[in-house]
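#struct-help
A.M.: can someone run this one for me? Single chain, 129 residues.
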Amino acid sequence: MKKILILILTFLPMTLFGQHLKCCQSEKEVKSYLSGKWKQINTESNMVYEYWFENGKGHISEIEIAENGDELIELEIQPFVEIIKYDQGFKIKFTYPYENWISELKYLNSNKLILVTDGKETEYYKYNK
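D.P.: on it. Structure tokens below:
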């Protein structure tokens, strides 16, 4: 009995490693949580990224926070965003006019977002100003 318990406790955590994204089961859920403004944690950057989805297409705006901290200035570049489902979770494909890349969604809820791009994690929080 002890051997079975040890095997279960050994292999159970390993199966949990296969599940990368910790929140969403559907593309609709990802879009719902992702919609809104996000700011990178632990950075001096004054950039905010706003995601929204309409007519089946995803968009992202890059917004700069003015020096007074209250005013938001939207920049002209608006790439397309595509949610891609795969075995371990979801990825986001960003398509700009001259480049594109894919980031993995590691964590997403209504207040926190972690993206993995080229093996590097970037954490964001929901910006509510």
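A.M.: thanks! The beta strands are 36-40, 47-54, 57-65, 72-74, 80-86, 89-95, 100-108, 112-117, 120-126.
D.P.: also worth noting: Helices lie at 2-17, 27-34.
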